[in-house]
Each structure stands twice: as C-alpha cells, then as structure tokens.
Amino acid sequence: MKKILSLLTVLLGFSVIFSLSVFAEAPGRPLVEGITPTSTTNKTLKTSDHQLIRAGVGWYGKCWPNSPNTVLLEDENYWKRAKAAGLNAIRVTNWDERGYVNDASLNDTSNCTYLNDNPHGGAEYNGAWTIDGNLRHLTIMVNHAARNGMYVIITPGDAPGSYSKPYLEAFWTKAAAKFAGETHVIYEITNEPVNFNANNYDDATHPNTTGNLADIYKIMRKAAPDTPILSLTFAVAKESMNPVVTRFTQKVNEGTTGNDRPLIWSNNKDLVSFHTYNTDDMVTINALRAVYPVMNTEWSYFGDTSVKKIDGKLFHGQNLEQADLPEQGGGISWINFRAGRDDSEFVPDFYKFVNDAKFKNYFWKPSSLIDDSLSDLTKVHFSTNMQITPACSPANCNNFEGDAYRATLITGQGTGYITYKAPGVGKFKAHIYSNNNFTTGTNQTSGIKFYVSGNNVDWENINVTKSTPVATAAGWKVAYYTPTAPLPVGTEYIKVELTQTPNFANQIADMQITYWP
User: Fold this and answer.
1) What's the angle, vertex CA 151, arms to CA 127 and CA 286, rounded to 5?
2) Which alpha helices (H) appear in 33-103, and where do they start and end?
3) Cβ atoms within 10 A of the Cβ of 368, count?
4) Is the peptide bond before 119 cis (omega within 30 degrees of 0)?
5) How far apart are CA 254 and CA 212, in angstroms?
6) What is the enclosing helix (H) or strand (E) of 435?
7) Please, are residues 7 and 455 in contact by the beta-carbon 8 Å criterion?
8) Pairing state between β 54-60 and 89-94
9) What start and end residues bound the annotated signal peptide (predicted)?
10) DSSP assignment string, 319-365
C-alpha cells in the first residue's frame, strides 16, 4: 500500500497549501466536565464546545532544533496537518528542562555538548535557552495554535523519570504569567517526574516529590488563576494513584482553609494527568476518575516500548474514547505520543489508529454515507460490463424480497465491476443476492470479490465477513458483506467485482459506504 500512503501525504500537503490564508480564532477556555456539564464524577478536560481534547506530542529546546522537534513545531503547516487529521491540540514538551540540569547558570552560553543516551528515551545534552529565549520560541507555537483554532498544552520535560525543581520554578514564574490570558493554553507541571510508578512518588529515590510539585503548582496557580493545570503526570497507571493525589492536595493547601485553598478540585480548573505505559486494564484509572478530574497526556502504540494492550484493545485511544458511552458525551481526553511526528511516522501510524476507530465505531469526526439502492448507476464512480436488472415481476419479486432493481453482470460477460469513490473511506456494507453461489465459510462468495485503492490504479483484494445467508425463494439467498478488518490507510475507492458463476449471476442490491470527508 506504499502508493496509497504516498498519495495521502501529497493530498495532505495540498490541503495545507490551499488553506494557508484561512485562519480560525483561538478556542475558548477548555472545560472540566463529565458526561454532562453538571456531572460530579468521571470528569475530564473538554473543549469549549464540549468535545474531548485529542492531541499529538511535539518537543522543542535549544539542543533539539531539528524535525520533528523545534523546527516542526514552529512551522504553521504542522498545526494545519494536525487539525486536518482530526486533532484539536498539541502538547509541546519543553526539553530545555533536560539541558538545564547540566547548565545551572541558564545563561544560554552552553554549546549543547552531547552527554549520553537516556535509557528511557532521548539523548541528553548540556544546554538550554534562557527562559526569555525559550518563551520567544514557545510564543510562535502558541500563536500558530490560536490561528488554527487549536489548543496547546505546555509541558516542561526532564529526562523521563526525573525533574528539575530549579528549572520549573524559573520557567513557570515567567511562562504561567505570560500565557495566563490565552484561552487556548493549558499547563502541565512537568512530564513523568518519577521513575515510574505511583508508589515511587515520595519514596527514598524521589523524596518529597509531591511537596516539590506542590510548590511549583502554587507558583503557576497564583500567576494564572483561570488556566487549566494538569498535575503529577503518572507514567504508569497500574498502581493506585489516589493516595498520591491526596498527599499532593494536602501539600498545596497547607496553611489555608475554605475557599482560600489554592487547589479545590470541584472548581473545575485542575486535573490529574496520567500515561498508560505498562498498563493493561482500566481499573486504577477508573478509581482515580471516580474522585478526581483526569486527562491522559500520553499513550502510544502496541509494540512500542512498555506499551501493552489495555483490556485487550489494540489502541489505547479506544479505551479512552469509550471510557463511558460515547453517545452520552463520555470518554477521557487523550494525547497520542506518536501523533506529533513528521509525515514518515505520522501518516501511516496515526491513520491506522483512525481507520481502526472508523471500523469499530469510535471515531470522533462526523461521517457521511453513500447509500446506493442501485436502481440505476448514477452513484457509481465507474462500471464495466454491469447492468441494472429490469424491474422484478410478480413471478420473481419474492426472490429478492421485493427489491425491484439490482446490479449484475451483463449477460455473456465473464467479469464486471462497479467502483465507488469517496474521501476517507472507513467501512462498507454490501447487500448481495445469490443463487447457490454462497460458499460455506464467512469470507468470499463464489463469483464476487471486494477491492480497495488509494489511486484507482493499484487495487488490493480485501477479506470480508459474510452474514449467515437467509433463503428467500426459488433457491435464492441473501447475505451482507462487511470488511473483516480496518481498511488500509489512504483508501479512497471501493470495487465490487462479479465473475460468471454456474448458476444465475450474483446480484448487488445495495451498497453502503461510510466515509469521512
């Protein structure tokens, strides 16, 4: 399917180019709410129009200038691509916190000397911009987000499993105040401060973690009283996180009472953030969200380091989207760790997730439907050697349950097909009548095959699942065909091919194609 992927990349590029002059307004303040705006439990962070936050991750810093890092985040096309793909936010991780550990003067004179490879991800360098220099770069990203109607989550990040309190104090003292008035900006104290479980907060290796993070939180909340703040950022959501949140809350509120407390969870401005590495069920996540508002700020793909299936699902995004009944406005807002990369990773990987969501009915964007009853060929993109049957007569209408018209082979032709074209095809359903041509299995029927393509040239035969055939009359049966698995990335065309069979030719009564323009 390489040609499909290449075409998708080109189309995304053109969509960006043609929309350069069209800018949205910055979205309103995000909302901390549950299934309904008045829910008191199972809260997460939502957009100002009550949608889940769905984001990718990028990172920036003095010593990480190249794509997919600083340069990519400062390119407005990056933000346009994310929005076109269905994301509404980007988490920008400030890796200057990593360089600051070895550059205590923070005077921007270090030369980004390579130190080592961190065993938990990324190379370590000695070097960071001044805070003012960092904020100049961050402002470019914040402005890009605003111009494209997107949210931005600002997250300083030391090497995974660590943090620098001096850097966080210096950074948030200026950053929290600078962006406090931006309605589309969200703050996260720091990324994965301990290595790595809930029980490691405040242990001998990470003493007073909750106290140190509480000190940073108070700096942030004082400077930005209305900005949503994500706290604690658990790397693993397997052990109980609630006791850690309780300690953190107590330390933030020490010496204060009543409404003077800096951290009141019911004020709907604060959330606990968590990642889903080494997590295989939703038990502790559900226990946490029963008490505190939550947001996932990293999940990655099964097969990546420390990523397991959660409750058997291939993509953690499905677990999070379906944490409550989606049709009732439920779910947990999420950030996909790999959905902020350059096209070489973003296009194949993210769209595999998207196509899984389309196939399993948890994709969040509204769909469109081609519903073709095949009374004629006007909705068909192209056909070869196919005809619409004459209207059924009283003698044979029962064979087809009263369906007057169907598409079938022209008499005497060995092979024929119809094709459909639609952007972002996610699934289809074919309504087929056959006279003794249904095979005993659940896949292909003798005389009918299904293909997909991204360019109407290179076609891939796909497996389908057939419903149990039901007899109608005179040896005819009816069955429905759907794809067995998510369609390949970049599918824009569907082909239904009929070949001559010993008995009557198969007949296509109806085609339903669900797509996302």
Assistant:
1) 95
2) 70-73, 76-84, 96-100
3) 12
4) no
5) 13
6) strand 425-435
7) yes
8) parallel
9) 1-24
10) HHHTSS-GGGT----EEETTTTS-HHHHHHHHHHHHHHHHHTT---S
The CA distance from 426 to 428, in Å, is 7
Q: How confident is the model at residue 446 (pLDDT cuts 50, 70, 90)?
A: confident
Beta pairing partners, 483: 464
Residue 261 has phi, psi (to 5 degrees) of -65, 135
Please count the other Cβ atoms lying within 10 Å of the Cβ belonging to residue 239. Answer: 15
From residue 280, alpha-carbon distances to 222, 287, 445, 488 in Å are: 37, 15, 39, 27
**Cα–Cα distance between 494 and 444 in angstroms, integer?**
16
Sequence-distant (6+) residues with CB within 8 A of 230 are 45, 153, 155, 186, 187, 188, 189, 271, 272, 273, 295, 297
Per the listing, tokens 């600078």 go with 178
**From the centroid of its chain, how far is CA 406?**
39
Q: 239-290 pLDDT, tens per residue?
A: 999 999 999 999 999 999 998 999 999 999 999 999 999 999 999 999 999 9
**How many Cβ atoms are within 10 Å of 487's Cβ, its own excluded?**
21
For 342-399, how does the pLDDT look when each residue is reduced to its tens digit (9 = 90+)?
A: 888 888 899 999 999 999 999 999 999 999 999 999 999 999 999 999 888 888 899 9
Whole-number Cα distances in Å, 485 to 413, 420, 516: 31, 19, 17
- CB burial class (10 A; 0-12, 13-18, 19+) of residue 115? middle
Tokens representing 59? 């990172």
Best CA proximity match to 398, nearest among 288, 319, 477, 460: 477
Q: Could you tell me how many helices (H) and strands (E) the chain has, helices first?
A: 11, 25
The H-assigned helical ranges of 107-201 are 131-147, 165-178
Query: Dihedral, CA atoms, 38, 42, 44, 47, nearest 10 degrees?
Result: -40
CA distance readout (Å), 195 to 209, 275, 293, 356, 505? 11, 13, 23, 32, 64
Global model pTM greater than 0.85: yes
Q: How far apart are CA 283 and CA 163, in angstroms?
A: 28
Cα Rg, the chain, nearest whole Å: 27
Residues in CB range of 62: below 8 A, 6 or more apart: 96, 99, 108, 112, 127, 128, 129, 133, 134
Q: Residue 490 corresponds to which tokens in the numbers above?
A: 């970049």
- Here the tokens at position 133 are 């220099």
- Separation of alpha carbons 435 and 446, rounded Å: 10
221 HSE (CA, 13 A, CB side): 21
Please check whether residue 40 is in contact with residue 48, taking contact to mean a CB–CB distance below 8 angstroms.
no
Please choose, from the candidates 223, 225, 217, the residue with its C-alpha nearest in 3D space to the C-alpha of residue 190.
Answer: 217
